Hints:
Layout: H1 34-53, H2 61-71, H3 73-88, H4 92-113, H5 116-123, H6 132-148, H7 154-184, E1 187-189, H8 200-212, E2 219-221, H9 238-249, H10 255-273, H11 279-284, H12 292-321, H13 327-342, H14 346-349, H15 355-371, E3 374-377, E4 389-394, E5 400-409, E6 419-424, E7 434-442, H16 455-472, H17 488-498, H18 505-511, H19 523-531, H20 537-554, H21 566-576, H22 594-597, H23 607-624, H24 630-639, H25 649-657, H26 664-669
Parallel strand pairs: 5-7
Antiparallel strand pairs: 1-2, 3-4, 4-5, 6-7
Amino acid sequence: MSRFPSGGPANPLLVESTLPYRLPDFAQIRPEHYLPAFAAACEDHLSRVAAIRDNPQPPTFLNTAEAMERAGTLLRQVSLIFYNMSASNATAEIQQIEQVVAPLLSQHEDAIWLDAQLYARFSALPLDGLDPEQQRLVTEYLADFRRRGATLDEPAKVRLRALNTDIAELSTRYSQDGLAALNEAAVLVDDVEELAGLTPSQISAARAAAESADHPEKYLLTLIQPSGQPVLESLHHRPLRQRVSEASVSRGLGTGTSTARLLAMLRAERAALLGYAHHAELATESQTAPSTSAIQELLARLTPAAVRNAQAESELLSQAAGHALQPWDWAYYSEKVRTSRFDVDLAALTPYFELNRVLEDGVFYAAAQLYGLSFIERTDLVGYHPGVRIWEVRNADGSGLGLFLGDYFTRDTKSGGAWMNPLVEQSGLLGHQSVVVNNLNIPAPADGEPALLSYDEVVTCFHEFGHALHGLFSQVHYPRFSGTEVPRDFVEYPSQVNEMWVLSPDILANYARHHETGEPIPAEWIERLLKAQSWGEGFRTTEYLGAALLDQAWHHLRAGEDPGDPEEFEAAALRAADVFLDLIPPRYRTGYFKHIFSDGYSAGYYSYIWSEVLDADTVQWFAENGGLSRENGDHFRRTLLATGNSIDPLQAFRNFRGRDAAIEPLLRRRGLTD
C-alpha cells in the first residue's frame, strides 16, 4: 500500500515494499531518492502529529499515544534504510546527503518534542484501564517530552533548537571526518619481507587492498576503529609495528579533537538549559544505571585491580622482549608470552575459522540448537551492496521469523568496527516482522581464496549475531519498544551473552575445521586456550576503562566550561582516573571515539561493562542449568529477548534469572577478585 502523502512520483522509499518481510527494494533505490523521501516523510509525519494535537476529541490512548506510534512509520522506514547506508556504504554522494539530512531531522524532531500543546495532550492521558505495555508507552513519551524540552519557555526553546542543529551537524562532521582519517591512516608497505609473521591470507588481503587503492605491487594494512590493531600481534618487523601503532592512535588529531571539544561544550550547555548538571546526567536518566555516581563507583571499583594486573603483565612482557617496552610491542609480546606460558598460538587457529563455516556451522548452528531456528539463504533477494548476503530465518515450526543480512568485508565507504542495524522493526501494531543487518570489517580475501578469521573476529561474529537475535525475537506491540530499542546500557547484554557459544564444545566441533583438510581443531589447543583466557585481561580491562572514563570526563563538563586543548584534557582526565599508562592508550581516543561523538553512546561507553554484569551472571545461569539446550534457549528467548523495551529491562532480567544480577561472576571473569 502506498504511503506517499499525496500523489507525486513513485519513490521506492515511500511505498511499502512487496518483497518478503518488507525487505527494502534496494534494486530500485537510488541516492537521488533520499532527499525527496525525507522531505515527504517529514511532511507526512508533521501532518499526522498535527492531527493528533488538534483533535477536538478528549485525549485517549488510541487517539494520542497509539496514533503517535503510527504517525512516524514512514519517516522511520526512510531513516532506517538511509542510516544503514550511511554507515555501511558512505559514498561521497551519501555523505553529502547526510550533511543535509542531519540538521533537517534535528529541526523536525524539535518541532514535535517542543510542542507544548502536544505535551499537554499526553499529560492529560489517563493510565487507568491500560495494560502494562500501554502504560509504559505513555510514561516513556512523557519522559521524552520533558527530556527534550517541552516544558521550557520560548526563549529557551529557541536556543535549544539552535543547539540541537549545531550538535547534529557536528556529529555528522565528526563521523565523516573519522571515516576519512581511518582510510588515510592505512599503512602502505613496499617490501613483503616486512610483513613476516602475518599469515598468507593476511598478506594476500593486504596485496588486494593495495591494488584496490591503486598501489600495485605493494601492500596496504587497513585499520579498524579501536586503538589496538590486530596485525600488531604477529608482525615481527618492529619499525612497521611502530608505524601501524602510531598511525592508529594519531587519527583525528586536529580536526577530530577540535570537533569533539565543540560537541562536548554544546552538549554541556544543552544539558544545563534542560535543567541537568551536565550531559552525563541527562544521558543517564533514560538508562538502567540509577545515576552517574553509580556509574563512577562501578568504574572506580574496577580500575585499581585492572591497572595492577596490567602492570604485572607489562613486567612479564618486558622480560620477554629483553628491552624497554613500547605501545607497539605490547600485543606482539603478549602473544609470545601466551604461547610460552600456555602453548597457545592465536595465529595458528586462523586456518580453522573460515567465514562460511563460522557463520553456517557455528553462529547459525548455535541458534538452531538453542532456539530451533533454521536459515535459508535467499539468493533471489538483493542487498544494498553486492557483498551483502541474505538469509530467511524460520522458527522450529517452520513459520517465518524474519530476514538476516550479513555484510562482512571492509571497504573504504564503510565505518570501522562492527554493528547491527534494523531495516524493518517488528511491531504487532503495524504487522511487521524483523529485518536486521550485521556489519563487520573483515579484510576481503584475494579472489579465489577463503576468508579466514582471527579468533577475535569469530567472537565478533557471535557478538553481533546476539544483537540480531534480539531484533529477530522481538514480540512487542508498539514499534517504540521493538528489539534493540532498549536502554543503551542494556543493549549490549544479549550480544555479550551470545559470545559464550564460541568455545562451547558442541558448537566448536561443528565449525572449527581446517579450511583445506577439514580436520577439526585439535582439542588440546582449545583446552589451552580456555586456560589462557585470563591472560591479558589486565590490558583489556584497562584500555576499556580508559575509554569509558574518558567518555565520562568529556560529558561531565559544566555549561560554559572550556576544556582547553583536547589532548591535554584527555591526558589530565586519564591521570585523574588513575588509568594513564604510557603503554596502554584507551581503546578509543578523543580523535576517533565515534561511539560517543557520533553514534549515540555519549556518556554511555560504560554500558559494555555495566551490561557485562548481567552477561556474566547469565553465563553462570546457563552453566548451572545444563548449558546448550532448547529448554534454556527458549526460556531466555521468552523472558528476555522477546520483550524488547515493553517492560523494564531489569525486570525482564529478574524474570529470566529469578533475582537481581550479582557482580561476582564478572569480577571472576575479569580477574578482579582479591
